[in-house]
Structure formats: structure tokens, C-alpha cells
Design a protein that fits this description.
By secondary structure, the chain is an alpha+beta fold. The protein contains three helices and four strands, in the order ββααββα. A hairpin with a 2-residue loop joins strand 1 and strand 2. The radius of gyration is 25 Å and the shape is elongated. The termini are far apart. The relative contact order is 0.19. The mean pLDDT is about 80.
Length: about 110
């Protein structure tokens, strides 16, 4: 297994055919709803945390999986939806529509 941290929020995991057998995964039929896939996935992410510092346990993640011809796969894990600190006052956004009778009046207002 090869782990490559692409940035603060993204990790690339390359699994060989042997890795897929070890974790009992099949890239064509991986389904997070099954206990086996979920367990294998979190084992991989736990190892990634220890080796790269990438922590996927604190929020929502987006996973992309691409099969390789040799029987393995590439997996991209992206942290998404991290909550930002609430602002003390929400920004004020509004719309205003103005109408001017003549171009001269508009230019006077702009000056």
C-alpha cells in the first residue's frame, strides 16, 4: 500500500492486488454499506493517519476509487464540509434598485 498526502484535505491511497486480497476488497463491488468494506476502509485510513497525519475521522469525506489493470486500485479521499467558526454577525447582503429620469441625474449621483 502506498500513501501519498496530496494536501491538507486530500489523500491518495494506492492498493496493489495483494493489498486488495489482504483487505478482502474488490474495486468493482466495493460498497460502504457492507461491514467488510467499512472495516477495511477504516483500517486503511487508520494506517494513513499514523503514517501521514491525514485524519479523516473528524468530518465528512468524499471517496473516489479507480480500478487498476493489475488488480489493485487508486483511492482518493477528500475531507469535505469542515465547519468554519461562526461569525459574530452574519454578513449583510441586499439588493437595491435605483431609477433615474435622465443620464445627467445618474452622473450627478455617481460624482
Amino acid at each position: 500500500m502506498e500513501l501519498l498526502r496530496i494536501g491538507d484535505n486530500k489523500l491518495k491511497v494506492t492498493l496493489s492486488g495483494e493489498d486488495m486480497e489482504h483487505y478482502r476488497l474488490d474495486s468493482e463491488s466495493m460498497d460502504y454499506d457492507t461491514t467488510e468494506t467499512r472495516s477495511a476502509f477504516w483500517q486503511i485510513l487508520d494506517e494513513a493517519k499514523h503514517k501521514t497525519g491525514f485524519d479523516a475521522g473528524g468530518g465528512r469525506i468524499f471517496v473516489q476509487i479507480y480500478s487498476s489493470r493489475a488488480g489493485g486500485c487508486e483511492m482518493y479521499v477528500t475531507l469535505v464540509g469542515e465547519e468554519e467558526e461562526p461569525q459574530s454577525e452574519p454578513p449583510r447582503i441586499g439588493t437595491a434598485i435605483y431609477c433615474f429620469d435622465t443620464l445627467t441625474v445618474l452622473l450627478d449621483v455617481c460624482r
